[in-house]
TrEMBL record:
This is Ubiquitin-conjugating enzyme E2 S. Residues 11-157 form the UBC core domain. Keywords: ATP-binding, Cell cycle, Cell division, Nucleotide-binding, Transferase, Ubl conjugation pathway. Its EC number is 2.3.2.23. It comes from Drosophila rubida.
Length: 210
């Protein structure tokens, strides 16, 4: 993993660290930053899929890569979680005007993450990096929504998603003979694996049908 720390000015590094710490203390709604103490330029965050969108049940991991000219030049942004979205390329790169022609050096990390979250609510098929998703969004919204939801269910389920784990644990509680936390941890893991397997089978079935 290539680090940009030595290319950034100490002032920029301090500014970025401060922003990340502020966001850790008072996180924007539905966004959790993951601070990498050893490399400030490796900025990652978890974004909850906004309610009312095909991404609603997912949690998406995004990564911002700061260039050596940051904040004069915008960072590059990527989805590390696979997603079906008009403005996200196959390699996860995100296309949004805020990170291109509308960039201003004082926008900051929080603004970028909020913009990415907004993109999940209002995709922009005009600047599609995934042409298939852009076309589907405009011409067959139902199909687009179903496909995006299926991708979310397969790829964007966090390992320790409280609600999913709790629901799964509840449905499986009959196999559990004591509330030992260790056992529960193992159980959740097994359930996640089972769930993944089932989802993959369903996905294969769906793809055959498509």
């Amino acid at each position: 993993q290539y680090s940009n720390v030595e290319n950034l000015s100490p002032q920029t590094i301090r500014q970025v660290m401060k922003e990340l710490q502020d966001m850790e203390t008072t996180p924007p709604e539905g966004i959790k930053v993951l601070i990498n103490e050893s490399d400030v330029t490796d900025i990652q965050a978890l974004i909850d899929g906004p309610a009312g969108t095909p991404y609603a049940v997912g949690v998406f991991r995004v990564k911002l890569t700061l260039s050596k000219d940051f904040p004069q030049t915008p960072p590059k942004a990527y989805f590390l979680t696979k997603i079906f979205h008009p403005n996200v390329a196959a390699n996860g790169e995100i296309c949004v005007n805020t990170l291109k022609k509308d960039w201003k050096p004082d926008l900051g990390i929080k603004h970028i993450l909020l913009t990415i979250k907004c993109l999940l609510i209002v995709p922009n098929p005009e600047s599609a990096l995934n042409e298939e998703a852009g076309k589907m969004l405009l011409e067959h919204y139902e199909d687009y929504s179903q496909r995006a939801r299926m991708m979310t269910e397969i790829h964007a389920q966090p390992a320790k998603c409280g609600a999913v784990a709790a629901a799964a644990a509840a449905s499986d509680a009959k196999d559990d003979d004591g509330p030992s936390t260790k056992k529960h941890a193992g159980l959740d893991k097994k359930l996640q694996d089972k769930k993944k397997e089932k989802l993959l089978k369903e996905k294969k079935r769906m793809l055959k049908r498509l």
